[in-house]
Automatic annotation (TrEMBL):
Organism encoding this protein: Amphimedon queenslandica (Sponge)
GO cellular component: nucleus
Keywords attached to this entry: Metal-binding, Nucleus, Zinc, Zinc-finger
Subcellular location: Nucleus
MF GO annotations: zinc ion binding
Protein name from the UniProt record: Uncharacterized protein
Region (Disordered): 1-45
InterPro entries: RNaseH-like_sf (IPR012337), ZnF_BED_domain_contain (IPR052035)
Biased composition (Basic and acidic residues): 1-17, 27-45
Origin superkingdom: Eukaryota
Length: 211
């Protein structure tokens, strides 16, 4: 299951390197693969102050989003924020709450343990990403990192004799990541200040409708 997820990521990268896509949709696909690891690495490098600042920025963005619909002069909703509102609906689904609740406990327990964190980093080269309720794509980042270090995390939990996730939960996590991935990637793409992405909006919407 997890190996299939990792292989899927490798296959996507290989297809992009072969240059098999052209036009706006091709450009979109090329940018997608680059943004996935960039998002995860960015979270890894952030310290406590930066995480707090990101939370503040997210709250300000949410306030601006709500203010956009106040009064007679309504503006078009910010596309990135709209994508995030869709993603947050997954957190409120009854079928997701039990799994996410268990994941939050495991991630929190591992991150609070110096021994568990250092052992995981020594084996996987990465640490777990904690959930932040105001952080964009937070659920996706947390779950996708969990899948990438699944084997190493399992060995750490076994050594410490801590509870692991049941197989059914891992399968649900894999499905959730697959659903949330395009929303997270497109949020990162259209939020970039270095690349003009307005021409990619229509291809994005078309791909989301077929997702």
């Amino acid at each position: 299951m997890v190996d299939a997820f990792k292989q899927h990521q490798l296959d996507e990268s290989k297809n992009l390197d072969d240059g098999t896509s052209e036009g706006p949709e091709g450009d979109l696909e090329k940018m997608e693969a680059e943004e996935i690891e960039d998002s995860l690495d960015k979270v890894d490098k952030m310290n406590g102050d930066e995480l707090l600042q990101e939370e503040a920025d997210s709250e300000q963005c949410e306030d601006r989003h709500k203010a956009a619909f106040v009064g007679l002069r309504r503006r078009t909703s910010y596309f990135s924020h709209t994508l995030q509102l869709v993603m947050k609906e997954f957190d409120n689904q009854r079928s997701q709450k039990r799994v996410l609740g268990t994941v939050h406990k495991i991630v929190s327990k591992v991150n609070k343990s110096y021994k568990a964190t250092e052992t995981l980093i020594s084996r996987a080269g990465k640490k777990l990403i904690a959930y932040c309720h105001t952080g964009w794509s937070s659920t996706y980042l947390m779950l996708s990192r969990l899948l990438l270090v699944c084997d190493e995390l399992t060995s750490v939990l076994d050594e410490l004799q801590w509870d692991n996730l049941p197989t059914s939960y891992w399968k649900q996590i894999e499905n959730t990541v697959e659903v949330l991935q395009p929303f997270a990637i497109y949020t990162q793409l259209v939020g970039s200040e270095e690349v003009t992405t307005i021409s990619l909006i229509i291809p994005m919407l078309a791909k989301l409708q077929m997702h």
